[in-house]
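Purpose: get a first structural picture of the assembly so the mutagenesis plan has something to point at.
Setup: two entries, given in the order below. No constraints added.
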Amino acid sequence: MYEPDDELEAELRRLAADREPVPAELVQAALDAFGWRDIDAELAELVYDSLVDADEASLVRGPPGQRFVSFAVGGLTIDVEVTSAGPGRSVMGQIAPPQRATVDIRGPQDTVTIEADELGRFQSGPIPPGPASLRLRPPPGGDGPPIVTDWISL
Amino acid sequence: MLVSPDDTGLLVRSAAGGDEAAWRGLVTRFSGLVWAVARAHRLANADAADVYQTTWLRLAEHIGRIEHPDRVGAWLATAARRECLQSLRSAAKASPTDDMDRLDITPAVGNPTEEAVLDAETEREDAARAAAMWRAFGQLSGRCRELLRILMATPPPSYAEVAAALELPLGSIGPTRARCLQRLREEMAGISGGLSPSS
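Result (structure tokens, whole complex):
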């Protein structure tokens, strides 16, 4: 059966493929993403993001350039404040219950490693914008599996 | 390439088991959809790239925890949508660019052909039609552009994936698509008739 809408849609599809194709380097990045899996780690899922979840009416989204995100797994939460200054980002975090940990801030290109103190607090220097995920490792002599957070775009 | 829903579920389960070829299959199947979601939300190029990359990284970490492996396309569309909203609301980022308007001034040019003059003529007509269609698409309402841009993904997404990408009721996709394609025809008729206001 002749379907003019289907034909027009197919024509649009060819046009989009021609004018706005998926950049080849992004397809490669998607393929590479598989290598970032940490199958031994527990996943702390994103449970709150002030940019998405803040109630429009309550105006608790905070000042511009500041974003609050929370991750949780089991009884553990990781609260992170992301600050934007121009193109740079920095993160300040709190692990609860408080505990020491080595914190890897993972990006597609680089990993920055910082330490959380005995109160579970950690703070980074400037890091580039883009996809990021935290990996928490027990301190030397510590026990337990590493924890990775959901990827977010900083 | 057409993959049945069952095959998609199999790809997810195989990838969860560490099968890299299965992951490649998922990227092949859904790369266009994730990109279309980012384009539909009219993000600047760098932000669209971040959304695309973050969405795939997130799936990689979740691959063994997907509740409905056969619906991973909708999962990706939802994740990409959420990233888009985050990106749009991030005050630190530049406002979305109007890529369509920029592209309006770039007419499609057919490749030189060694075929007969008749073929060259046909090619010019095709290029002119493509340019008119792209321009007409850019003049549609935001809602129509969003919906059609998702539908324009290669390979074609399912209506369930489109609905997930735009948080629309599944039942509204068909009727809205028909209305928006009709609007596109009208815009194109206006452009070829020279009735469109010059920009």
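The radius of gyration of chain B is 19 Å.
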